[in-house]
Amino acid sequence: MSLQQIPHIILVLSGKGGVGKSSVTTQLALTLSLQGHSVGILDVDLTGPSIPRFLGVESAKITQSAGGLLPVTVHEAKPAQPTVPTSSDNPSTTPSSNISYARLSAISLGLVLSSRSTAVIWRGPKKTAMVRQFLTSTVWPSDTEYLLIDTPPGTSDEHISLLETLLKETAATPAQLSGAVVVTTPQAVAISDVKKELDFCRKTGLRVLGVVENMAGFVCPHCSECTNVFSKGGGEIMAREAVVPFLGSVPIDPAFVALIEEGKRPVYPKGTVVGGTEAQEAEGNGEDAGTRDDGLLVEKYTSCSIYPLFEGMVNSILKDIEERDRNGGT
Amino acid sequence: MGPDPDIPYITERLSSIKHKILVLSGKGGVGKSTLSVLLSHAFASSSRPAHPISTPNGNGNGHTSPSSIPLTVGLLDADITGPSIPKMLSLEQEPVHVTSTGWSPLYLTDTLCAISIQNMLPSNNPDTAIIWRGAKKTGLLKQFLRDVEWGDLDMLVVDTPPGTSDEHLALCTFMRDAGIDGAVLVSTPQEVALLDVRRQVDFCRKAGIPIIGIVENMSGFVCPNCTGESQIFRPTTGGARKLAKDEGIAFLGAVPLDPRIGMACDFGEDFLEAFPESKAGVALRGVVREVGKRIGLDVVDDDAE
């Protein structure tokens, strides 16, 4: 299935580097998948692709078929199962056994390179050609509902080519291009760059689905005290000034980093409060420490303290898209 | 395609600058601009001996001068689409002056000047997006190097955007004849960042830029509540120290995450001047000393007094 047939395309943008575009893209994709939507991720950060690392598919390679490039499958769909305990695989001990999710696939330049430390030293025209090729000749799984596009920092070649190609390809059905999620961190230095990105969206007519304030505070794993390492609240003020929706603040969660880097299922000390909501208990599945780290990224992600925050964001994005679809794409 | 006819002009212009360093990182948001600003501040507030032991082309000649001469530093912001330097130096509102002989850099103090595209945007709308393709960015960088009247400087620090693309190639090409002392690489401890820094090391090798060393930024965080130390960005693969060892490059130091550094940058203040004795301040001064030593910059050691 080609780009024209994907119902919803969402861009993840930020003027500033290192604010967590890839992290937000990954978590939006996992959340969408857990809500039963089949997702594809396209990583157009050509000189610093991180998506393969986030999804734990660094050793995978994309393949070329007769129809075009085939993305890597991160996980297949797993339909909801009736909760009938079967004696053989003892579902009560694996907390994720009753979780259902839809397929997630991804494509990135990092999945083409022969070595993970090879520098891709490309000038604009070559990057443009690669972005076009990824957009126009990738064969997405036929059930793909959402395409998330992770971008490099800035407002340059990749972004111009991306928008040009997307606008051309979706000219017949402009509602396909749902809009952009803009990621920032709370500091003034990041905000001033991200304001430029909002200006970019305005100039290119790209809808802003909302602003995510990432790295808003760090919850100390020793005492569960939240420290605002990069200050706080800047993202919300910026969203208000620019009159775009504010999707929420996401704290730094070391357990999420450990999940990505080491595949550890997140556990938290007692009394950890994230986003003003409930504390995630550590001991709920404490007995089966041996099997706790087994399972797919998407299954383990449900134990992450910031997953409920992303659920909220995805719900408001989906509502926004739905409303727009109902109003005929305006 | 022959060599760029502007290169001799650039080389001529840069010949009055003794040391030129690039601050690089494949990854965004690891603290390139912060480190560039801190290095610039630190060098601009130090001095060199008035009579260096053997620098024949030193220009401290002839004057009946004091025992040390302040160092002069220029800071070039090569991040065209996401410039941060003016904000960090409180120079956001200053416009660049164009004269018949070139562009005048913006002076923060007598010894520290800077240039950035931010200062060339219309002052009524500083949030204008700069939506430029590579060729245009390359063109502006050429102008920064060819047309800015830096004057006599002890050091030029070039802050770069993330990645390995047009800007980096442009800097390399344009500055090759003038000579680059080397690159300071910045990384955070987690593998996602190191992955991009490895690509940057590969870039430096391919482009023939010497690597001065690597700095690990945001290395550990001390909770102000319980003083328990934790790793926000966990070095699961050994961090920058291991990368330095594997790649055979120097490790310049680890700077802990201190929320006050970010705040100092947001308000355009000099963190090192405000908190010289903080843990991060001490670590940063160590990095500055290491960089100075490795490029052969003769600095009067204030710490010795």
From TrEMBL, chain A:
Keyword Cytoplasm (UniProt): yes
Protein name (database record): Cytosolic Fe-S cluster assembling factor cfd1
GO molecular function: 4 iron, 4 sulfur cluster binding; ATP binding; ATP-dependent FeS chaperone activity; metal ion binding
Source domain of life: Eukaryota
One term under GO cellular component: cytosol
GO biological process terms on file: iron-sulfur cluster assembly
Main location: cytoplasm
Stated role: Component of the cytosolic iron-sulfur (Fe/S) protein assembly (CIA) machinery. Required for maturation of extramitochondrial Fe-S proteins. The NBP35-CFD1 heterotetramer forms a Fe-S scaffold complex, mediating the de novo assembly of an Fe-S cluster and its transfer to target apoproteins.
Record's subcellular location: Cytoplasm
CDD domains, alphabetized: Mrp_NBP35
Entry-linked Pfam families: ParA
Binding positions for ATP per the UniProt entry: 15-22
TM stretches of this protein: none
Keyword annotations: 4Fe-4S, ATP-binding, Cytoplasm, Iron, Iron-sulfur, Metal-binding, Nucleotide-binding
From TrEMBL, chain B:
Region annotation Disordered: where it falls in the sequence: 47-68
GO molecular function terms attached to this record: ATP binding; ATP-dependent FeS chaperone activity; iron-sulfur cluster binding; metal ion binding
Keyword RNA-binding: no
Annotated signal peptide: none
This protein's UniProt keywords: ATP-binding, Iron, Iron-sulfur, Metal-binding, Nucleotide-binding
InterPro entries, per the entry: Mrp/NBP35_ATP-bd, P-loop_NTPase, YlxH/NBP35
Keyword presence, Chaperone: no
GO BP terms, alphabetized: iron-sulfur cluster assembly
Gene3D superfamilies in the cross-refs: P-loop containing nucleotide triphosphate hydrolases
GO cellular component: cytosol
Superkingdom of the organism of origin: Eukaryota
HAMAP family noted in UniProt: Mrp_NBP35 (MF_02040)
The protein's name in its UniProt record: YGL091Cp-like protein
Lineage of producing organism: Eukaryota, Fungi, Dikarya, Ascomycota, Pezizomycotina
